[in-house]
Amino acid sequence: METVGRMRAMASLCRQSAAYHPDRSWKLLAEAEYWEHMASAALLEPECAATSNDLMKPQQTTDANDAHRTAAA
Q: Following CA atoms 33, 35, 39, 41 in sequence, which dihedral angle do they give, to the nearest 10 degrees?
């Protein structure tokens, strides 16, 4: 339940931010909808919540310039 609360808090924060940043409101409201969906999924299917937590982990991304730097070295 703590995870669900955190997800709902993230959704609320996104909605609040959308109110203060109208230029980015479409993205922030979409993110709020995502967090609400994740919270609902965590409540409905506890075993699904474990895999949903994997989605919340930051993923390492590579910069396209990194390949060029490595090749140049």
A: 70
**Residues 41, 33: contact at Cβ < 8 Å?**
no
Judge if pTM exceeds 0.85: no
Output the DSSP codes for the chain. -HHHHHHHHHHHHHHHHHHH-GGGHHHHHHHHHHHHHHHHHHHH-HHHHHHHHHHHSPPP---HHHHHHHHH-
Looking at residue 49, its pLDDT comes to 46
Backbone angles phi and psi of 60, in degrees to 5: -75, 130
- Residues 6 or more apart in contact with residue 38 via CB below 8 angstroms: 7, 52, 55, 56
What are residue 38's phi and psi, to 5 degrees?
A: -65, -40
